[in-house]
Amino acid sequence: MLMRRKFAWLGISLGGFTLPSAARAAPLDLARVIAGFPPGGTVDTVARRAADSLSPTYARSVIVENRTGAGGQIAAAAVKNASPEGAMVLLTPLGVLTQQPHTFAQVPYDPFADFTPLTAGASFEFAWGVGPAVPDAVRTVPQYLEWCRGGNSRGNFGSPAAGTTPHFVGIMLGRSAGVEMTHVGYRGTPPAILDMIGGQIPAVCGPAGEFLQYVNSGKCRVLATSGAQRSRFLPNVPTFVEQGFADLAFEEWFAFFAPARTPAARVEEFSRLVADAFAAPAIAQTFAIQGLQVKVSRPAELRDRLASEYETWGRIVKAVGFTPQS
């Protein structure tokens, strides 16, 4: 039986902790924040707000580079191979480092040996949404699962991609109720949701923020969210845990990493600057538009979280019987 995942880790502010001036490194001429996903998305938003906070103290000029492809692996490999003075930093969903080593036959990095943890940046929950293919009378997850028992492809559900958290949520949900669920992978959540509201697929699991505009316009409804507590963006929607699915408590978060052997002074300076900047109400408001919450950490906390997530996903992938991709 899968162990229940309890994510009670809270975002904290590092404002107020300072380094002795002698311990601080001189500003770099140029620093790059490497994001493995396209401009305009959630990862890009967090990366650009961080870049704004780092200049001119961390570096005189800070730019964001979107090195897309391979589900974030290209960006991770680029930072792994960078020199360790802190001039190139990775912003990534933790799943790239904690899930993909279990869901791919091979990845071009070691999540522990190749990176220095800096700080978390933002977090979000996942949501289970249904469209017009599911009767309007279905308003809870147990009701939805009972409806799925009717067959005729009712158990089909979409997700951003195979081997992601939403994929595993759907499989675990079906197994917990003895209902056959069939995964349909998409290239991102938006096309999956468009198929759902068009009636081509009954349900989609993806980041909660991706559903907000469609829920507000009445084009779909969300039956559950995956956080330990209800989503601040969907406060009237009960969690999976509230509806009796204790193992389905998942939260994804974006975090910053530098290459291995990055000097401690750079690590502390980066963490402090991002935490101070992200404490501003304007940042929280910007993130909220995309269903994100500010979440920062000390480097040691991020390191512990990385290890915990890696172990947890190893167990989940094995229990689900997922076959690693090439």
User: What helical percentage do the residues reach?
Assistant: 25-40%
CATH-defined topology of the largest domain: D-Maltodextrin-Binding Protein, domain 2
| Total helical segments | 11
The poorly predicted ranges are 1-22
The rounded Rg comes to 20 Å
- The overall average pLDDT, rounded, is 90
Count of domains: 2
CATH homolog superfamily of the largest domain: Bordetella uptake gene, domain 1
Q: Which geometry do the CA atoms define?
A: globular
Distance between the termini: 28 Å
Summarize the topology:
Elements lengths: L27 E8 L6 H13 L4 E8 L6 H8 L7 E6 L1 H4 L1 H4 L11 E16 L10 H8 L7 E4 L5 H13 L4 E4 L3 H9 L5 E5 L4 H5 L4 E5 L25 E9 L4 H15 L2 H8 L4 E2 L4 H22 L6
Parallel strand pairs: 1-2, 1-3, 5-6, 5-7
Antiparallel strand pairs: 3-9, 4-7, 4-8, 4-9, 4-10
Helix pairs in contact: 1-9
Describe it for me?
There is one protein chain. The protein has eleven helices and ten strands. By secondary structure, it is α/β, with parallel strands linked by helices. It folds into two domains: 21-124 and 252-320, Bordetella uptake gene, domain 1 (D-Maltodextrin-Binding Protein, domain 2); 125-225, 3-Layer(aba) Sandwich (D-Maltodextrin-Binding Protein, domain 2), CATH 3.40.190.10. Helix 1 links the parallel strand 1 and strand 2 (59-66). The longest helix is centred in the last third of the chain and has 22 residues, at 299-320. Mean pLDDT is 90; it is low at 1-22.
